[in-house]
Amino acid sequence: MSNVRLWISHNTGALIAVGLFLILYIFYSSLHPRGFTSDLFVQNSNEALALIFVSIAQTMVVILGGIDLSVGSLMTLVNAAASELVIGSGWQIILGIVLCLIVGLAGGLLNGLIIVYGRLQPIVVTLATGAVFTGCALLIRPTPGGEVDGDLSWVATNALAELPATYGWWDGDPPGWFNVISGVPMPIVILVVVILVVWLPYRNSELGRGSYAIGSNEAAAYMSGVRINRSKLAAYTLSGLFAGLAGLYFAIQTGSGNADPIQAGTYTLNSIAAVVIGGASLFGGSGGAIGTIFGVMVLRSITFCFRVVDTDSAVGFLANPLLQPMFEGLILVIAVTLGAARAFSVKNRLNMFR
Amino acid sequence: MALPQISSLRQSIDRPLLFAGIFIIAILVVGTAYTLIFEGNASLLSPTYLILQLKVASFLGIVAAGMMIVVLLGHIDLSVPWTMAASAMLAAAIGGPFAIPIGLGVGLAIGLFNGIGVAYLRVPSMIFTLGVNVMLRGFMVMLTGGFSPSSVPTDAMLWLAKGDIVGIPNPVIVWVLVSIAVAWMLRRTPLGRYIYAIGNREAAVYLSGVNTRLVVVASFALCSVLAAFAGILLAGYSSKAFQAMGDPYLLPSIAAVVIGGTNILGGSGRYAGTIAGTILIVLLQSVLSVMQMPEAGRQIIYGVVIVMMLLAYGRGSKLRV
Lengths: 354, 321
Hints:
The complex is a heterodimer.
Chain A: H1 2-10, H2 12-31, H3 38-63, H4 71-85, H5 90-118, H6 122-140, H7 150-156, H8 162-167, H9 176-181, H10 186-203, H11 206-216, H12 218-223, H13 228-254, H14 261-277, H15 289-308, H16 324-338, H17 342-345
Helix pairs in contact in A: 2-15, 3-10, 3-13, 3-14, 3-15, 4-5, 4-6, 4-13, 4-14, 5-6, 5-13, 7-13, 11-13, 14-15
Chain B: H1 2-12, H2 15-38, H3 47-72, H4 80-94, H5 99-119, H6 125-144, H7 155-162, E1 164-165, E2 168-169, H8 170-188, H9 190-200, H10 202-207, H11 212-237, H12 250-259, H13 271-290, H14 295-313
Helix pairs in contact in B: 2-13, 3-8, 3-9, 3-11, 3-12, 3-13, 4-5, 4-6, 4-11, 5-6, 5-11, 7-11, 8-9, 9-11, 12-13
């Protein structure tokens, strides 16, 4: 019983995000003219996946107590690289994907090396490396364009059923067990695989636990024998990998590359918002990929909801496209302020200054 | 006898200022070598060019002055772009003799809102001001969508941005006045002392009997008023107030502050460094464009320069327990 209570108290933020998402999404799909369908779910998950990966990249760094202002730029760089590399025969595509992920890893490692061995603050380092990544992206792709393998694009942005159908895995009808899961959107399959293969092993490893310890109290972690430098480097490098995954998916989704600094900035800022809504503290030591995923889905659901509000209803003013940017900002401010309710519950005012 | 004098001289010129100064001279030397070789003149060293650069730098300098106050507290203000745009657009839209006071008033209101959110609600400044920025953008889209209010600056705004007094452009004079005021505030007033102290440890300042939350609100208000002022000047300079006018000022203003030696975690840094950082960034951008460097190369050099400058003098101490 006390274990459950402990778990809930550790994950309050994430649970609130899950609840908020469910409310918003049920509201959205019930208002949607065609109701909740598999197609709708596929489309919505497509729109969310790139931001989910960028936000997980941000989460890795926020857990350490840092902040990464270069995730959007790194994503843009990998996006530009992918528009050149992910094309051709089967092996070429696989090689291209691997190269793209290596670019992401290298970008993250660069951040980590400068921050750890240069002993500089993450916020200014990533501000600068963000400019470098944007510059490299512009070198690769001065104008929007490029091409990504069409089959891959189709498979990655549709329901799971298209995967064997496109590549002809089975002659004739697929086996019975496959029909049960064939409606699952491919982005969700990708996300689950990545979480199972990368995030969970990392979270339970010495490196992952070390990064939570560093975020809580670096000096105490050091005294407890946590290998500070190694944990930090691993976190930044993995963050680069997730930014790379975001860029790769974005290229696959749009079928092209675009080195757009404004879009990079938007992704970076949204990733910070998603991490906070997902229950992480910007002071470090808490949060996680799962909470962040729901943080992104809350952000995205808000945008979705605006699309379906009936203009004649009582809340019809919400449908006014001129008002939507304002409400998005307002909801963002309210969401992060709710997380600050802590300020009113502290018994000793000194605890507020952290 | 000579030794103590040299060491005191060395202390009075701090390293960020020294490095920034050397780098500014290096930029001018490289740029002049380029123009000498390819154009056969030394136009970068002409007074007209340098005064023009100071004029361009004054907008960034005023924003950076405000940003520095907030950074000294250990906070950051990401709402600067739309504070500039909203103030300038509203000032231009309302027009008349009250345009400038109204623009500054908008800035003050935004700053108070930011300050209350950060100081009283204890929301991390990075995320709160980020949200305010998005909100302001939405607010301006709401106000200007569907019809287009006047975006032409008033005569006073035009004079303030384009006029000059005995050859010195007005924005430069404004920047100098703002700089004197901010430097005096930081060094000579209790408010300045509190700002540095809060950047070091807010709890200690609170226990010393200072109303730290009011200081934080005042600092955010100052930052936003200065950003609004820069926005109004910029609208006069470009003869138009437009939506994206503040976007190119956020990251350079933070960069100017940290290149100038202010600790991004707050508590230390000198105002002179921020001026040097501002001039460095403006000159770097200008010389790179004179050298016809493509945007990609400019971004890369810009990033590398920030990291190199910080590696030279901004390194933290090793973790010692």
